[in-house]
Write a structure and sequence with these properties.
It contains four helices and two strands. It has about 170 residues and is mostly helical. Helix 1 crosses helix 2 and helix 3 runs antiparallel to helix 4. The radius of gyration is 21 Å and the shape is flat. The mean pLDDT is about 80.
């Protein structure tokens, strides 16, 4: 019976992995089981390894599940609280890396790339400003996600500290 809490946490982690695979199947279909996933944006193909995609889904899903699962225990359990902090830090790092990749999604970023048709042939709508607005909104959304994760981690630390004082 000593190993029952550890076995229970392993089952929770396996459930998080299963949910991550199901989310990947719902979004990308059977291609999630192939070697890589190709995403076509404009005239550029982005190739993502399936392991990177599933690990990202796993981190988001498991952080959310562990946070809400441990909310009722006031974050007193040490292993689960450690999982929440570890997954939260990795989620913040992944979000920071995603923001660094945003300039690559701008097709009018001409850092040594040939843009076809030339910029002088564009229509009246300034595509650069439109894409810049979209990229700005996405980067702000990722920043808000990071703030939410940090505030959730701070609430875990606060509730844990408060429960230690009352005991």
């Amino acid at each position: 019976m000593k190993n029952k809490p550890l076995l229970l946490e392993i089952l929770w982690l396996l459930a998080c992995i299963a949910i991550s695979i199901i989310i990947g199947l719902c979004i990308f279909g059977k291609t999630v089981f192939s070697n890589s996933i190709d995403i076509n944006l404009h005239d550029t193909y982005f190739v993502i390894k399936k392991q990177h995609l599933l690990i990202s889904f796993f981190i988001v899903v498991s952080f959310s599940i562990y946070y809400f699962k441990e909310f009722k225990h006031s974050f007193r359990r040490k292993i689960q609280r450690s999982f929440i902090f570890f997954l939260g830090f990795i989620l913040i790092i992944l979000a920071s890396l995603a923001v660094q990749l945003l300039p690559f999604f701008n097709p009018y970023n001409v850092n040594g790339w040939t843009v076809y048709p030339p910029l002088s042939m564009q229509t009246e709508i300034n595509q650069y400003e439109q894409n810049f607005f979209i990229l700005t909104v996405v980067s702000k959304a990722v920043l808000i996600l990071q703030i939410i994760v940090v505030s959730m981690m701070l609430s875990v630390a606060f509730k844990w500290g408060r429960s230690k004082i009352t005991n």
